[in-house]
Amino acid sequence: MPWWWRQTARHxxxxxxxxxxxxxxxxxxxxxSLGDGSDTDNERLLPGVYPSEPVLDSGEWLREPYDPxxxxxxxxxxxxxxxxxxxxxxxxxxxxxxxxLEHIGxxxxxxxxxxxxxxxxxxxxxxxxxxxxxxxxxxYDLDSVTRLTGNGSLSLTQATAGSPGxxxxxxxxxxxxxxxxxxxxxxxFGRFNVGVTGAAQRHVFGPTTLTSGVVTDNSEQNYWALxxxxxxxxxxxxxFEVFGQAGVGRDIFDLPSTTFMAxxxxxxxxxxxxxTGRWSTILEATxxxxxxxxxxxxxxxxxxxxxxxxxxxxxxxxxxxRMTAGFATTVSPPGPSGGxxxxxxxxxxxxxxxxxxxxxxxxxLADWNSARFVGSANTETGYGLGAGADYKVNAHTALSADYxxxxxxxxxxxxxDAHRVTVGITLSR
Length: 429
What we know:
β19 (379-394) and β20 (397-410) form a beta hairpin. This protein has a domain at 3-57. It contains 1 helix and 21 strands. By secondary structure, it is mostly beta strands. 7% of the residues lie in helices and 61% in strands. The protein has one helix spanning 3-31; strands at residues 71-85, 88-104, 108-121, 128-143, 146-157, 170-172, 176-189, 192-205, 208-210, 215-216, 223-234, 240-253, 266-279, 283-296, 303-315, 321-332, 342-355, 360-374, 379-394, 397-410, 414-428.
């Protein structure tokens, strides 16, 4: 190496070293805004600051620089179901996808959910969609005491042959489509709160195919249901609210009944009174009683007067326990499997859920129902019991197992029993 090159390199190295020495105090001062950078006043030397909590321990800075309008949640469940019933044994494979979209704003709330149930029988039968449900719930606060709500729903259901509660002579059950929406407004006037609602529903029933090959047309059961309601409540104490409800509805059928040779169009009117109690977030209970009148346009069909009873209770003593129970009265058209002019149904349900820990949850349930058909000798009664468990493998995978027992008695189908065991895996977002 020439002597002049070595001399130039020595001068350059000396200049760089001097520059670094002059810059060190400035660099230290720029990194340590809380001190002068000397001795223990240097914050980087303080315990618990660095490197005990490096930046890479948190992924917050990796998030998108904006919030999406909807929070998206989805899951896909694969289940196997074995049923041993009075009508025989069957094994089904079920695929159940679900999706949910939710938006919570300062004044508004929007929630959309959709689910489907796809069944493939083990006997090689056709794959069928036994359930499809869509739901939309919205709310908007006009001010601190006034809220608007709007809801919509669409459901498509079809029971598979041999299912518990389905007549043994049915080869293909009717497909039922129900859809509609409702709107409402609630407002507080001091200790009073007033709510007004309006709803429209459409019900369509497909044909029934019997094991003998006979096809029964159910189009005369298709109808529109229009309803309006008024609820007035008084907050008598911080715990108890006394309320009254009034409703009026109209059922309009597409075709006249071949049995009664007239349109079974009817007007419904209900009047109920009740009380609601709320004890913090631990206990909430509601009970009401009233009367319902269903009057048909056709003079020969007369009218139906029914006593209405409704009750519900929710008990949550701590975050690990949740217990619910309810009793409801339903007055509706009889549908394809009923008879007469009106179905009056009384149903009770009870459910207990217990979260053992972060990865195991247990549940048990029971139900009972009794129905009579005005204008027909048909009756239906039944009850059911069930228990299940969910085991979380990780944040996105869960295993489930359920057992259900169903017992039903009807004047048209006799006594039926069914035991069902279902196991599956669910993958979620």
